[in-house]
Amino acid sequence: MFGTNHLGHFALVAHLMPVLTPDARIVTTGSFAAKSASLDFADLQSERDYHPKRAYERSKLAQMLFALELDRRLRAAGSSRLSVLAHPGGALDSLTPSRPRVHVRTAGQWLRGLPARAVLHGKDGGARPAVRAVLGPDVAGGQLWGTRVFGLRGRPRLETRWANLTEEPSAARLWAESVRLTGLDPLG
């Protein structure tokens, strides 16, 4: 999961950076699941102690720390490019509206999703923070865009960074490890 969710994105940004316009906005999709996660630098890829949920949480935290470290480094280099974070909240497929010819929701699926609708939303609602981060005229680098209702559903809103997203030494260390593991440096 670390390779797919973090290192793959790290490498993609490294390869795309030379062709991005000076006013480009790089939006990284994080996850509410990362809110209570912490990185284990002795086992970043969960090779010694793999638990699917924890590995996912850590990989999404790594992705989010990368986005913040990328923005710090862009600012330090005097770049006008922005790196922004968005997370979808609790976005469940069962709460996503039908889109004929793409996906049709049955009445039974819709009814089974009703209890979750009180605190979660569908994939369409989950996309709104990312759209806001991409298109919002007032979006600034290093911001975290999420959802209004307990961070799980509702209209997009600017969120305060979670405690584990304020650890700049961890973000810098993750950057160095990512460069070592991929052989690429997005700003190097």
Please describe what this structure looks like.
By secondary structure, the chain is α/β, with parallel strands linked by helices. It has one domain: NAD(P)-binding Rossmann-like Domain (Rossmann fold, 3-Layer(aba) Sandwich), CATH 3.40.50. It has 5 helices and 6 strands. It has helices at residues 2-16, 52-76, 107-113, 123-135, 168-182; strands spanning 25-29, 82-86, 91-92, 121-122, 144-149, 153-159. Strand 5 (144-149) and strand 6 form a beta hairpin. The longest helix has 25 residues, at 52-76. It is globular, with a radius of gyration of 17 Å. The model has no long low-confidence stretch (mean pLDDT 89).
SSE blueprint:
Blueprint: H1 2-16, E1 25-29, H2 52-76, E2 82-86, E3 91-92, H3 107-113, E4 121-122, H4 123-135, E5 144-149, E6 153-159, H5 168-182
Parallel strand pairs: 1-2, 2-5, 3-4
Antiparallel strand pairs: 5-6
Helix pairs in contact: 1-2, 2-5
Structure described in brief:
With 188 residues, the protein is of the alpha/beta class. Helices cover 40% and strands 14% of the residues.
